[in-house]
Please model this.
Amino acid sequence: MEIKVLTATEYLSLPQPPQRWVIDGLVPAQALVVLWGPAKEGKTTLALQAGCSVTSGTPFLGHETQQGPVLLLQIDTPRSELTQILIRLGAHNIPIAGLMLPDPDQLEAHKPMNLLDRDTFFYLQTLVKLVQPSLVIVDCFRELGSFKENVSEEQRPIVNALKAMTTNHPSHPCACLLIHHTTKLTSREIVPDAKDAGRGSGYLAGAVDSIWFLHQGKVQLDPRFAKKQVLYLDHSPEGIWTSRGTS
Model:
């Protein structure tokens, strides 16, 4: 292979591949997106609503979706609680049938999860190969291994392994929506920017393609591929999210 270099003008003249989306304007194909917010804020339900919209090809908070399979890797929420969330979603006519989940007993055999363990990584990567999803939802980052959240060098191999099984999967690359927690916000007078709100080292914020910061009924969006914006949401007593608009 001949090694080439290009001028900036030649580089800009190269054909650009079309932008493909999982959720228009929110989740590009093969992107890593982190959704973080305080505990009990409704992150899991919001992520599941996004996944259900993708499986059915219906809009998510006003954004069109490209229909495709969705794999849910629920490592944090207890099975009984996840069951109740899915029942509530179904009761509100949110199409849950297309979501794909691992066999709970097989998943449990790999807990406590260590994404750097060869057998565990192979199991999860094989799940992606079987489902061939356009989106994988992972709940949550902290449960992917035993690592110090405040140390970038310990976050890095976890993030790299997560990308290797999703966005950089060898045969079926896909987008990933990763759930994480924020730093403590209750004592802060000023709510931080989306990129500064995540718990632990700032490495994860720099490694993802977009940040969704869910807090007090709105989602701050901080993507690499578009301008920042805010989604304003309503949260029903049953825990269902609906859109009130954007800014």
